[in-house]
Amino acid sequence: MTVYTRPPPLGQHTTSVLETAGPFARQQASVQPEKPTDRGMDKEGVACKASAESLSTDTLEPGAKGPGGSWDGAVLRTADLSFSYPGIDGRPLPGVPPVVRNMSIKLPQGARCLLIGPNGAGKTTLLKVLGGKHMVAEGAVRVLGASPFHDTNLAASGRLSYLGGNWDRDIAFAGYSIPLQGDFPARRMIESVAGVDPARRARLMEVLDIDPEWRMHRVSDGQRRRVQICLGLLHPFQVLLLDEITVDLDVLGRADLLNFLRAECEQRGATIIYATHIFDGLERWPTHVAFLAGGRLERLQRADDIPELAQDRLLELVERWLREELARRKAARGKADGSEEARAKPDVATWSNGWAPGRMTSTLRDASNAVMRM
Ligand SMILES: Nc1ncnc2c1ncn2[C@@H]1O[C@H](COP(=O)(O)OP(=O)(O)OP(=O)(O)O)[C@@H](O)[C@H]1O
């Protein structure tokens, strides 16, 4: 028999903090100093483990020195950064390694860093984390001395600019990734950005060869891209994160943009990370080259230390790095497939990592729509 008791009269309820094991509670717990697990995450599996106190002085920047825990003037720095995309319950998917793994990066002011790596290496994810678009523990990333996720002023002020992806959106009943468009001139978009130096705006429109009267519903992909880039560069950024935004540009547009960006670094001391798969004409552009594979930073070298750059053989070099990495990956995969652990894995869907609004992005391990099937 169930016994119901009368609830206390209104006003006599006691208020207490509800216990929660949700993602925010776990994230909060993760910033408390604690022992990280061997998976590079906190004990609940939240993505990032570094804290300001635990910063490593062991950076990949040659010659870099500095006491642990201080950012010693580096414009951009990560310390043993790891990140996993959360599943439907806010936790990383069990058995799936982090997308960004134990990365220690340090870049000085004025650096132009090429970010290279095979598809799926984690370049976009890393740039998004650096751009403050994914939450990581406060001490894990420092850009201009602040945490990009927590210090929203960094991006809002334009000091940190992230430029990536396509300019599109999902529209109900129309489709996914619909190009951003509307029957208004490019000028209206560009002039609507407040607090911009008119001379800089004019210079950018000249560099990007933008006709202010382009109607945004009739532009080509490359023209739309030029307007997108212009908007992203209007404020004199101090740190710029570029995720392959030159794909649609013609050769001249790309060359002029890269020259403009080089001048921004040399004259204003801006710092840029540029992820790309297009290497023509890039040999003399970078000051640093970073190579990512499988979520790890395999190299971060000064351009001066890479002789192939001076010999205009960047493409050849990248192809070699990619082939070596592919061979290592294949060998590792072969070993893993034959392992005891792999044979013991149930051949069924065991987890789902959630759904974007209106679109399933779950990761079911077979063709079934089952979420859990044991
Ligand atoms: N929203 C997401 N949820 C779960 N996993 C993701 C998500 N976005 C990316 N990933 C995974 O993270 C890994 C790295 O992806 P990322 O886009 O960062 O790679 P990339 O180096 O930029 O690749 P590319 O050169 O193809 O652009 C991939 O294995 C990808 O499947």
From TrEMBL:
Q: Which UniProt keywords apply?
A: ATP-binding, Nucleotide-binding
Q: Where is this region: Disordered?
A: 1-45, 52-71
Q: Which Gene3D superfamilies match?
A: P-loop containing nucleotide triphosphate hydrolases
Q: Which GO terms describe its molecular function?
A: ATP binding; ATP hydrolysis activity
Pro residues bias spans = 1-10
Biased composition of type Basic and acidic residues is found at 35-45
- Which range is the signal sequence, renumbered to this chain? none
Domain called ABC transporter: residue spans:
76-319
Q: Keyword check for Zinc, yes or no.
A: no
Protein name, entry field: ABC transporter domain-containing protein
Q: What is the lineage of its organism?
A: Eukaryota, Viridiplantae, Chlorophyta, core chlorophytes, Trebouxiophyceae
